[in-house]
Amino acid sequence: MTKHVAVIGSGVMGHGIAQVYALAGFSVSLYDLQEELLQKARASIEKSLSLLEHEGVITEQDKSAALERIVLTTDLPQAVADADVITEAVPEVIELKWQLFAELEQYAKPEAIIASNTSTFSIARLIEKAQSPHRFIITHFFNPAQLVPLVEIVRHEKTAEEVVAATVGLMKRIGKAPVLLKKDMPGFIANRLQAALMREAFHLLAEGVADAEEIDTVMKEGIGFRWAFVGPIETADFGGLDTWKRVMDNLAPELDQSTTAPAIIAERVEKGELGTKTGTGIYSYEHISVAEKLHARDEQFIRLAKLKKSGGN
Ligand SMILES: NC(=O)c1ccc[n+]([C@@H]2O[C@H](COP(=O)([O-])OP(=O)(O)OC[C@H]3O[C@@H](n4cnc5c(N)ncnc54)[C@H](O)[C@@H]3O)[C@@H](O)[C@H]2O)c1
């Protein structure tokens, strides 16, 4: 039975994953390279827990107990020594992950599960150099990991059945909605669906069909409004497959077929306009508080999660 979890990397994803485990009652070691990064992660966790408390999802005691369960450390052997499950959320660089896995195999208990939060590497690639491939698995959390219910789980044929079953059970125990893929596929399910939609959104923008705000409104007020409760395949059934056959036959040839990132994104990247992190992306963030925007986003996500919980899926 899992009691102790180690999370390696305390950045955008790692701190949220640590928060989820701690709130679910597990003792968590959160590791990063520098103390300063860990302090920043702890402050983010505290802020997020405060918001959950403010929204009535957890109590003040839940918040302080969760914080007490998280131990910050820059000592890798110490972080993983007692861990039953180790989740890595270090940058998406394969050599970095391989190097880390070699260290984890050296320092962790032989029975500890090693889970990766990779968004793009296949499990086959991740375990290429592993000495104990049977204990490797992907648990792909969605940003913000502490709020979005989905976790995609990807196994390899060498992953032990007990590891797969334990991981699915663990994700349910921490309140997540796990989906176990039947195949190892680049981008898994969620990022493939998202990339297909992004490609078309930027195509519409480039074609001047609407401005960015209007395209985002179509998503938020139309498609996205439905999709929190009705998936695309259900949508096809509800609309009628005869109708959807005509829609797809007529529209599929019209859709963007590009095989590289949209030119608008590439041009902005070239100029160093990376979005909220630089103050300008497609929109400008120079005169608004990104922190306030993220706070408002998280508040809405918490309310949506409550709504989904109260009404089922
Ligand atoms: N950001 C997202 O939206 C998102 C969503 C899903 C999955 N992911 C995946 O999660 C992983 C982490 O992404 P992120 O966005 O949290 O990155 P990030 O850059 O925000 O955080 C990575 C953290 O790992 C630390 N780190 C770097 N090298 C390390 C090492 N050798 N050992 C331990 N820690 C190290 C860094 O100091 C940093 O704090 C990546 O594999 C990424 O593809 C990201």
TrEMBL record:
Residue span, 3-hydroxyacyl-CoA dehydrogenase C-terminal domain: 187-285
TM annotation in the entry: none
Pathway: Lipid metabolism; butanoate metabolism
Gene3D superfamilies: N-(1-d-carboxylethyl)-l-norvaline Dehydrogenase, domain 2, NAD(P)-binding Rossmann-like Domain
GO MF term list: NAD+ binding; oxidoreductase activity, acting on the CH-OH group of donors, NAD or NADP as acceptor
Organism domain of life: Bacteria
Key words of the record: NAD, Oxidoreductase
Site feature (Important for catalytic activity) residues: 140
Ranges where the 3-hydroxyacyl-CoA dehydrogenase NAD binding domain occurs: 4-184
Pfam family, one: 3HCDH
Binding site for NAD(+): 9-14, 32, 92, 97, 119, 143, 277
One record GO biological process: butyrate metabolic process
Family note: Belongs to the 3-hydroxyacyl-CoA dehydrogenase family.
Protein name: 3-hydroxyacyl-CoA dehydrogenase family protein
Originating organism: Brevibacillus gelatini
